[in-house]
Sequence to fold (111 residues):
Amino acid sequence: MTVDVRGRHLDVSEPLRAYVRRRLQFAIGSFEPRIIRAEVCVADVNGPKGGVDKLCVIAVCLVRIGWVLASADGVSAYSAVDRAASRMRTIVVRRIGARLKSRSRADRLSV
Fold:
């Protein structure tokens, strides 16, 4: 799975890049044959003000389905990545499951 990690108003360190890749592999790695690519953007929304200001947006391109998005915010970039990856897993399971369910339904109707 190709994972592109970018930062917006935030320098993305190598440990953070490795963490994002590891976390995505854990969350959606089992669906890798159905994933074309993943793009991750980690942003610092409020700048140096502090607070819950890190945002992570994950976009995944699925075969025959297209792009799906998940986003989450957190106090740190790592917590935002965790929450967004968890949401992405839920979305991917639903989208692939719905596709498989409609496919099997169409197979039953064509018999």
